[in-house]
Structure formats: C-alpha cells, structure tokens
Amino acid sequence: MEKERLNYGQITPEGIKGLLEIEKYVSESELDMKIFELVKMRASQINGCAYCLDMHSKDARAEGETEQRLYLLNAWREAPFYSEKERAALAWTEALTLISKNDISDDLYEEVSSHFNEQELMALTMTIIGINGWNRLAIAFRTKVGTYKVK
C-alpha cells in the first residue's frame, strides 16, 4: 500500500472549489444519477483510479445500481444490461476521457445527442470533465483507497 502524498482537500480547499461546483451543477441538473455514477465508474476504470472506483461503486449501489451491471461495466458493449441511452453516455465518456487518442466524430455526437437534450448533454459532459479531474488528483496524490463512506 502506497502512502498518501498530499490531502488536497485539506491543504487547498480553494483549489478544488471548481470541481465541487461541477458536482453541484450536475447534481441539480436533469441528468439521471444512475448514468452519472456509471460514467464516473467507466472513466475511473479507464484512468485506473482505485479511490474513485471505490467511491463510485458505493455511490452507484446507493442509487440502486446492481452488482452485475457494475461488474460488467468494463465490457458494456458486449453485455446486454445497458440501455441505448446508457450506451451512448458510456461511448461519450470513453471518447472524452481518451480525447488525445481519438476524434469526437459527428456520428458519436449525433448518437449521444439523440438520447440527451442539450441541458443533459452539457451535464453529462461536465460529469466527464469533473471525474477526469478527480481521477488525476486522487492518482497523483495517492488518496487512501477504501476510506470513502456514502453520505
């Protein structure tokens, strides 16, 4: 187990204020909270963020998510347990999380736009931006895994 390097929330609460504002904005939006948690889980899988995977698996279960869907999230394309709307959100998540490796195609944009209105799409996109930021903080500063408690 690696030692935590820095507790960024305690050291610089003003430094994470922007990420907290994103969380507040999305929580007050029309975005389905199950999709919110699936997206956070998927981006955290891609980024390899153990702290965020622990946190969002707990939060997803608190929102009523099933173990089966969480276990198979990494293989969502092959698993029959996700709706078309969720699949569009997960594809959007992967594309934005791996943006340096790909182009955001018109086809992908049209697909995600067919399932989310403009406000939802903005909230979805901000969720992805936010979780990628949180992942980078938790990984860089080795946030202690397993300490998160659902509120």
Q: Care to describe what's here?
A:
This protein is mainly α. The chain has a single domain (14-140), classed as AhpD-like (Up-down Bundle), CATH 1.20.1290.10. The chain has 8 helices and no strands.
- Tell me the overall shape: globular
Radius of gyration: 15 Å
Number of helices: 8
Helix content: 55-70%
Biggest sheet, open or closed, and with what strands and sense? none
CATH topology name: AhpD-like
Mean pLDDT: 94
Give a summary of the structure in a few sentences.
This protein is an all-alpha fold and 151 residues long. The protein has a single domain (14-140), classed as Up-down Bundle (AhpD-like). Helices cover 63% and strands 0% of the residues.
Spell out the blueprint of helices and strands.
Elements: H1 8-11, H2 17-27, H3 33-47, H4 50-62, H5 67-71, H6 84-97, H7 106-115, H8 118-140
Keywords:
mainly alpha
